[in-house]
């Protein structure tokens, strides 16, 4: 778990260590330290804050996804922002949890990530749907002269 605020790290540890199936094995104050500790401890899941000194959580997520492709990554952030959300997905995160609702969502998000399932807060789901619907329709339409079965019509 990496966050540049010790108080947040303590709070997250309290939430997770109270669960019988979750244990915090390492804490880091920035992305570089998170990479170092993740390589040493080999956890199932990395929880990263987006905005940290020295190396951001997004930078750390990209590096961890490259180094340890089996590692699950959750972003824990105060940013309810589509730009950060999409950047986190591109960096390899399988979940995005807002700090404002972490007491409610974090445990569920951790369990989903470990099972290999994505976890998105409701606003992120709306952003994904909006992004999909805004894509050019031409790319998804069938070529002229073809049917849905792929056969040519005569």
In this structure, how is the largest beta sheet organized? 4 strands, parallel
Question: Which structural category fits the helices and strands?
Answer: alpha/beta
**How many whole angstroms does the radius of gyration measure?**
19 Å
Average pLDDT reading: 87
What is the terminal separation in angstroms?
Answer: 61 Å
Q: Share of helix among residues?
A: 40-55%
Any idea what the shape is? globular
Trace the largest sheet across and list its strands.
1-2-3-4
Range of strand content: 5-15%
- Strand segment count: 4
Poorly predicted runs: none
Helix segment count?
A: 6
| SSE run | HHEHEHEHEH
Task: Walk me through this protein's architecture.
It is a single chain. The protein starts with 5 loop residues before the first helix and ends in a 21-residue tail after the last helix. The protein has a four-stranded parallel sheet with strand order 1-2-3-4. The protein has six helices and four strands; from the N terminus they run H-H-E-H-E-H-E-H-E-H. The longest helix is centred in the C-terminal third of the chain and has 13 residues, at 102-114. The protein has helices at residues 6-17, 31-41, 57-67, 82-91, 102-114, 122-133; strands at residues 45-48, 72-77, 95-98, 119-120. With 154 residues, the protein is of the alpha/beta class.
